[in-house]
Each structure stands twice: as C-alpha cells, then as structure tokens.
Design brief:
single chain; about 600 residues; alpha/beta; seven-stranded mixed beta sheet; five-stranded mixed beta sheet; 23 helices; 17 strands
Amino acid sequence: MLSQVPLGECVPPNTRHAVSVSLPLWDDNVDYEKGEPRVLDRMSGGYPRFFIAKVIQALAERLRERFAMPNEAPMLFPSQACAKRCAAFIYDQAPKQRDAALPTYTLPKPGQVRIVEYAVEPINRRAAALDAMSTVLDEPVVIYCVLFPEDLFSLAKQYWQHTGNGISARLAEYCMHIERVNEQCELDASPRYRAGARRGTTSEAVSPVVSAGADLEADTYLEERFGRNVDAKYAAAMKSVLRRRIAGALTEDEQRHGAQVERGVAGLSPDNVYLTATGMSAVFYAHQALLQMRLGKSVCFGFSYTDTLKILKKFGPGAYFLGNGEGDDYTELERILEQHTQAGDPILAIFTECPSNPLLKTSDLPRLRALADRHGAALVVDETIGSFANIDALSWADVVVSSLTKVFSGDSNVMGGSIVLNPTCALYTSLSSAMAAVFEDLMWCEDAIFLERNSRDFMRRVAEINRNALAVAELLQHSAKVARVAYPKFTTPENYRQIMRPTADAGYGSLLSVMFVGGEKAARQFYDSLLCCKGPSLGTNFTLASPYTILAHFDELEWAAQYGVDADLVRISVGLEPRAELMAMFQTA
C-alpha cells in the first residue's frame, strides 16, 4: 500500500508524467492555494491542466528566446485552431476580467497577441533514433506558440486550464529530444568542432547531449520490456483499440477475457467515439459542437467540476447554474426551458455529471431526457465518476463525455478524454456534422499508447474498486464522528439505481466525500492522519485523498458552501489496496 509521499513529489512516486502531486497535510493545500514558497518551491509537478509541466516550460522558454519580443510570454498548443482560440479568448476576456484582476493589466491592442508556427524535425533521423527515445516520427511535429504581453499570462493560463488543449508533456519531451539532437548534429558538422575533435579536444561550451538523460532511457526500457507498451508508430492502431473499447465493440479475444462491457445502445460503433487530449477537452469540444449547430445558453444542472461551468460561461452566450441538482432545481429548470422556448431562444443543452463531483449526486436522467426532448435541447452527461462499467448514461444522453485520465487509465501517468455520440438520438446527424466541423484529434501518439496499455484491465479494476469503496463508505457512514458521507449508494440512490448496469460487478464507483461532526478541526486531523497518497485527481489504482473544496474553490468558499460543498469536505478516491489494510487505515485515521 502506497503511504504518504513527501510534499511536492509526484504521485505515484517515481512515475514519469504523473498527474498528481503530494500535498500530505491540510496546511500544504492551503499554502499551495496561497502561493506560499515553502510549498511551490518543492513542487516537482502537479495536475497537468493546473501546473504546466517543467518540460513544457523548458520548451516554451526555448521558443520565447527565439521568437518573443521583450516582455512577451509564451503558451504552447498542438494545433493552429487551439492557438487561435487562445488568442481570441485573451482579447475577449481581457476587458471582462480587468476590474477583478490583481495585479491589473493593460488591455491588449490588435496584433499584440500573435501566433508562431514552429516545426520540429530531426536533421539526422538516424542520430535521433539512436538516442534514448526509440521512435522518430515520419512527419515533422508542428507546435503553435501564442505570444502575448506577459501581464496577460493569467488569461492565457485560464484558456489552458479550462479547455485542456495545451500540448502534452510527452509531446514536449519529444520536441526537446529532437531539438537537442539537432543541436548536437549542428555542432558535429561545424568546422571548428570537427577540428577540435581531430586534435582530441572538446570545447568547454559543449557537452554530450542525450535527449532526456539516462533516466528516460531506463524508463523507456522498463515500459517497453515490462510495461507491455508498443512503439509509437502503432499509435493510430492503439487509438482504434481505445475507441472500440469505449464503444463496447468487442473482439472475440476481448470477449473471452472480459475486457469490456457492452454499452447497450443500438447502432453504436467506434466511429461514434472521439478521443481528446484531456477530460476537459471532451467537455470543451462537446460544447463547441453544440454551438456550431446554433447559439444558445446552456444549463449546468448540479454542482459540477469547476472547469465545466467555466467553459459554459466563458465560451458562448453563457449558462445557468442550478447547483443543488435536486428538488426545486427541477422546477427551476422547467421554468428556464419554458421561458426560453416561449422567447424563441431555446436552451442549447443541459450538462450534468453522473454522479457529481464532489457531492456524488446523480441526476434523474429519464426526467432530464424528457425535458430536453420537449424543448429541443441536447442532454450532455459526464460519466467520469460513475464510469460506463457501472452506469448506462448513454441510453439517456445525446452526448456522453468522460475523463479517461481517471479510472479508465488508473495508473495516474497519462491524460485523456472521450466523447461518445448516441446514434439513436434525434440530434445525432446534426451533432455528427458539427463534430466534423470543430473536432481535432489532439491526443499525442505516446499518450494514446500508455492509455491503451493502462486500460486493458479496466473492467477487472473497477469491480474490485467498487467493492473496496463500498466497504470504506459503510465504515465511515457508521462512525459517530462522521456527519455525512456523500456516496452514490447514500446520495440520491433512486436516481443512481435506475441507470446502474444490471451486472454482478457493477457498483457505485471509487469516489466518496466525508464531512465530520467536529468540522474543520476534525477534518484536518483525519486528513493529516491518513497514511495514503494525498493530492489532486481521482480514479487512481491507489487510494488518493484531498481537501477538495480548498483546492478547487479556495477563492469562492462561501459560494461553494451554498450548495453543500463545505470547506472542510474531504474527498477520497478508493483504490485497489487489500481491503483489510484499507479498513485499518481509515479506522485509525
């Protein structure tokens, strides 16, 4: 069982491109949000949409030195369309956010936000292939560098965070490798360097270049020898496998090994599945496709993950937020839908999570489906927490989105997301055309390979995690020190049961949130005493805890509390550890 990891180290430990970082004490989380150097200076990484990976920072600095004017900052994207959207976002949001910005900034003038296209290709393919990275792609990699006045960095970072469309750390690592090998090749080819080599001397300014050092070489060897990875040239095939796995279109071998669950939607095929670079990218592209069909406000039903609401509000005409997601919110939703229908400006879509993060409420999907049909709105369901191993959201939704970073991967070392269109819904043809117009496959080849490898035993892992989480939830539920446990079995259970898959292994997922009778003091004691990994993310193969509200809503704690998301809430993602060890750890804490 993974125990506490020192502050600032990656989670899981010794994992290249880990998507979590250790914040083992309650005050570490608070000080992280305050920007205290004692925490920030020890951060080796972080959740990739919030903490720009150091290898990406290094590549951005190279391009800044090469292309930027004084007082310009860079942000890197994998496509021109993403870069253009970032530039448009900066121009759009700068006047809207200026009054609240600390420190304030000068509004950008036309042309002050610009885009540089940069192609990365090896000078000597043989030299590049002999280095630590075994694969050299056939085509050059083109990245897009958005350059803007450096006091606007916070706006560019918002776009990066909300959309999840920044470049992947593995993509940056590949580019840095090629850049370094190219530099060495240029040095080798220079007359001065060749003359020095003939005399048996080496310039003090030159050191041997290995793209990412011996650590990457060892990492690559271990992954390929023991991790069942395949070469990057097979990435397209691996993406096909992923789409098939998500669609439930099984090969005979997969059926024999129980690799997947069938989705139960007539006509569903891998062609209805779109892979995205991150889970938030899936939400972003689903929303963009809907806006491609027509402009209109959306409704965020239930207290969703923070960036979902940001996407709905900042990209397009805006959104209504019904943060309780139960009771009177259904009546209010009907009123909003009717009001907009009567005004000739129908609501575009209803977005909801099943269950929600972090309160684990499940919306009444049949009821939302009926309302959406009556008013011509799309129903978009984020099934990340429930996962399609446990729930059938697709039968009710027009679009299902998911973060594959979480339990689908489990290993906490790769980002990814998916969009699935329901081929039986009335909007399917229009949605398919809209997706064709706006969607880009931005999942980096190596990320696809890791995601395919990690998800091969997805169903087996989910079944075991379901059992472990249920045991932990029931233990906490019966404790006199616990005020409330948010868990799908206890929270709007009738709504969850009506979409729960009728299989022996289906359960309530890995996630639960706990609030204590003793308030923040008790929550701090519990959190600090837990002998497990602690940091952002969820759905990991190991148990992971965080004071969710502190990390996600530190600047809006009173607002979040209105909806029951209290500042002293502890969110727990239960893993695959032996159940007896888990129970003992939680009992002790």
